[in-house]
Amino acid sequence: MEIRTNDFGSINGQKIYTYTLENNNGMRLTCTNLGCIVTEILAPDRNGMFENIVLGFNNVEDYIRNKTYFGALIGRVAGRIGQGKFELEGKVYQLPKNEGNNHLHGGYQGLHERVWDAEEIKTDSAVGIRFSYVSPDGEEGYPGNVRLQVTYLLNNDNQWIFTCKGYTDQKTLLNITNHSYFNLSGNAKKDILNHELTLKSHRFLELDKQFIPTGKISHVEGSVFDFRNSRKILDGKLSQNEQNILVGNGYDHPFLLDDHFNEEIILRDHETGRKLIVETNQPCVVVYTGNQIGGEYQTAEGVKAKKYLALCLETQGLPDAIHHSHFPPIIIGPEDYYEAKTIYTFTIDD
Predict the structure, then answer these.
(1) What does the pLDDT profile of the chain (350 residues) look like in tens digits?
(2) Which of 140, 144, 70, 83 is nearest to 106 (CA)?
(3) What is the CA radius of gyration of the chain?
(4) How many domains does the chain have?
(5) 117-122 and 126-135: which strand pairing?
(6) What's the CATH number where 199 sits?
């Protein structure tokens, strides 16, 4: 197992590097100290062919220029906060409104555009990178100095283990996710409409026209939101359900998970045989099927941006939880310990 470091450019005089983790099976994960971005994951298909299964860019400039959040760490709060404000201990905090009237993914310069410190990790069973960053009080409008530590490990079981730990010196909000876009066809040769997704989830959140949760928790039974027995992503594109139409003919919805660390999320591409198993301690996964992907940019493989080019499986707390008392809280204080953990297992379908 090995780690390779390469120059990736600079931002405002700060050096940006890529770190390539490779296990004994030949699987590789490359990440960077800019926003803890995962730029590439090379995984085998059923014939042993290694191809990239996430969307990324070849240079720092494209990551800054194109607000895609490809592979990035998202925070301090993932998803949207309605009207970009919240109240905490009697004080109202106004955050940047970087998507219409709402706050999205931590603001204009959330954690995805910060330069992190990085150190290598090498053990008998894994290689990895430990990123660290202190988000100062008032950054993007959030209260509290928050110390963050993000670890990416790659082991010989072809697992990427993502852990985020956080500590604060005053009450604040924290809800972190990784925003990797997966396409198991390899090198984005095809879209993801024929990918099959299985979720251990019988409830999802209804969204309003601004993609903010209404507060209503709906049951999936009898709808195209029922992934308990597997379903093609294509079903969401073709659906006449107003919730699918609302988000651009597909999915961009939080699903409440019924189980944890028990193969609760499985994505399959039957053509290549690739299978991704996602397990987490987080209460939900936001399934975003790339309905809004578009623009003049191209991915690292030269594939032009288009709808349904890849999908995200964002394990996290519920979006806009600060405005819904019946959602699991995302408030942490100095006495609390925040830890989000997700394991991605890359394997082959039988």
Answers:
(1) 999 999 999 998 999 999 999 999 999 999 999 999 999 999 999 999 999 999 999 999 999 999 899 999 999 999 999 999 999 999 999 999 999 999 999 999 999 999 999 999 999 999 999 999 999 999 999 999 999 999 999 999 999 999 999 999 999 999 999 999 999 999 999 999 999 999 999 999 999 999 999 999 999 999 999 999 999 999 999 999 999 999 999 999 999 999 999 999 999 999 999 999 999 999 999 999 999 999 999 999 999 999 999 999 999 999 999 999 999 999 999 999 999 999 999 999 97
(2) 140
(3) 19
(4) 1
(5) antiparallel
(6) 2.70.98.10
What is the number of residues in the chain? Answer: 350
Which one from 140, 196, 264, 314 is the annotated catalytic residue?
Answer: 314
Q: Which of 179, 195, 253, 324 is catalytic?
A: 179
Residue 130 domain boundaries: 2-348
Q: How far is CA 314 from CA 272, 340, 344, in A?
A: 23, 12, 12
Strand partners, 131: 118, 150
Residue 179 among the catalytic residues: yes
Supply the pTM of this predicted model. 0.97
Contact 186, 45 (CB under 8 A): yes
Please indicate whether residue 314 is annotated as part of the active site: yes
Helix (H, G, I), strand (E, B) or coil at 151: strand
Q: Are 160 and 115 in contact (CB under 8 A)?
A: no
CA distance 190 to 42: 16
